[in-house]
Task: structure prediction
Amino acid sequence: MRFGFHISIAGGFHRVAERARRLGCQTIQIFSHNPRQWKSSSFTEDEVKMFKEDIEKEEIYPVFVHMPYLPNLASPEENLYSKSVESLCQDLIRTGILAIPYLVIHLGSRGNSDEGEALARISRAINEVFVRVRNGVIVLLENTAGQGTEVGYTFSQIKAISDQVEDKNRIGVCLDTAHAFEAGYDLSREKGLEGTIEDFDRSIGLEKLYLIHLNDSKTPLGSRVDRHWHIGDGHIGLEGFRRIVNHRQLSHLPAVMETPRQDDGDDSKNMSIIKGLIGTRKVNRI
Result:
């Protein structure tokens, strides 16, 4: 398993590889622009060239882009939905320009609309942008905690979205461990992990799992409250993560941590803990 963090682009893309190197990242996730703004500035040729060279030099792979916070592809509100589709389109273009193969997207909240309608809206948005942007970038659907009216917190909901996407070769899944736990998938126990993997494989197919977001949960199992926490300090716990990172059906995957940054040493501590779990205990496997 290759480990990394979501890395800040503050100050420019030329700072990303160095930040990742200092933390010992083998894989990373970034935003392609300020995640709290709709508009984004264009890349310069030098900016793109330097980013690609630095990432290659540090042997960081794979790299993932994460969609910003503002879009809501499940929204029943026409103006917000249209802006969200356009944002997805632009992020897909920017991801391709950076020569990054994957774009992780949040699925959004349905508001007062029907769940099935919301899932269909997400699929429709993806189909539209795949027609408009034919650069081969793969969109990864990230599971949610199910907070409020969020959709995509069950594997069956994610399957319903992906089933309606026409280009199956450009759709995959990012599994967030905190979100899954908060949605009711008990990753803290061996039986729960095995059941979760079986459910995912049966519903979606493990071949569609491209990335794991390794986050502990500050809130209890099934809380439907999204709160990431430090590895081993939350309700999933060290033994839960030990089983996850050593599991034969998951250990080949890249894993990005989005744990809290309360002080400068938090990322290094989380990296040290997660790497220390590799191969440290025999784990029963299915």
